[in-house]
Amino acid sequence: MRTFHALCIVAALSAPLPALAGTVAVRVVDANGQPVPDAVVAIHPAAGVPAGPIRFPWASEMVQKNIAFNPGTLIVPIGATVAFPNQDKVRHHVYSFSKAAKFELKLFGRDQSRTYTFTTPGTVALGCNIHDAMSGFIRVVDTPFAGKTAAAGDTRVANVTGGRAVLTVWHPRLKAKQNEASFPLNVPASGDIAKRITVTLR
């Protein structure tokens, strides 16, 4: 009986603690209080991010349609292979000279697709060698706690590890080094926290 009790105590002590996580609601506005859509919000908890692959609910896909990149800004996890399907009637030649990824996807036509795997976190600015007006961005992140602001400038990041963290906001027009700014954050062990971030745009 004593042996059984001892085993129960050991099992209880070795059992994983319940995850403590909260939801962070972020609203990004400019200096005039106007919402900033398409800003990428990423949160890095001081305790680190969970082990294992990072997955987001949206597709790792950058479509060329109507002579534009869709979406204009795409968030992908580090190590993601992104598809570049062409839905235009004309050919495209996608490229990037960014530090996070330098590559070319040479001429491909309608209903054709190319892929590229992103292995370095950071911002990848996209262009088309055929259509100079085309521009887009891929934000490669090393945290599962990320989201993009909607038209009202808001996004919600759920199940963020509780405790101290750093919240980073990136936008192509943000007036800061590498177009990003970081802010301290205390994530609740449960429930929601709202954070309003004011940024200066170029």
From TrEMBL:
N-terminal signal peptide: 1-21
Origin superkingdom: Bacteria
PANTHER family hit by this protein: BLL1555 PROTEIN
Top-level taxonomy: Bacteria, Pseudomonadati, Pseudomonadota, Alphaproteobacteria, Sphingomonadales
InterPro entries assigned: Cupredoxin, ET_Amicyanin
Keywords of this entry: Signal
Name under which the protein is recorded: Methylamine utilization protein
